[in-house]
Amino acid sequence: MKRRFFIQKSSFFGMALTTMPNTLWHTQEEYSTLELVGKADIDLYGEGINLRKDAHDAFLLMKRAAYSDGIDLKIVSSFRDFYRQESIWERKYQKYTEENEMEPIAAIDKIIEYSTIPGTSRHHWGTDIDIIDGYRKTTGDVLVPEKFEKGGPFEEFKKWMDENSKKFDFYLVYTDEPKRKGFKYEPWHYSYAPISIPMLSAFRTKNILQLMQHEDISGREHFTAGFLKSYIRNNILDINPELL
What we know:
The structure is a single chain. The protein is of the alpha+beta class. The chain has one domain (14-243): Muramoyl-pentapeptide Carboxypeptidase, domain 2, CATH 3.30.1380.10. 35% of the residues lie in helices and 7% in strands. The protein is built from eight helices and four strands, in the order H-H-E-H-H-E-H-E-E-H-H-H. Strands 1-2-4-3 form a four-stranded antiparallel beta sheet. Helix 3 packs across helix 4 (104-111).
């Protein structure tokens, strides 16, 4: 059995995170802070898949079903540990502050349009995937919303996922709901709900400000209590309500 590390939970930001978790998927399993922030050595399955066992198995079933309909579900990104997310953050922060000469706060706001602060990414959990249709050829960045719209190379992929992903317990995370705040619409990002819902519930009990104070992340001095409260409310919790 895999060893887990148990820590005392904190109620920081508790009053801000008032949405009740979806009890349909809630389990008694506990997740350590190390797991939640992407620093634990967790068991991942599948070459090029890299998901927790149940999520991996569900993805293969979904991939097989899509394949029979002429769609090749191809993972662009799945598990990312803290240090991989940190490298993404640092690269973007340097680009915006040095090359684009943006002020630090403006650079942070720009980064969190699509990228998370290291330690707060759902990709740390081994439950979330960025996927496309591997059969469709396209150039440039594949993860742009326009390519999933009508006339785009992934139009049929999007239709298939809209109709079928929930049968395999995968849910779109960042929807195109007009009133939703936080991260922008990502038609490629899906989450395996039976595990990610209880993991989000566990994440909501952690003292995020304290965690950030111990990390050497560029721009960290601007992660005030007010900023992090807003970030958690808008970027972490303003998601598809079926994943809360």
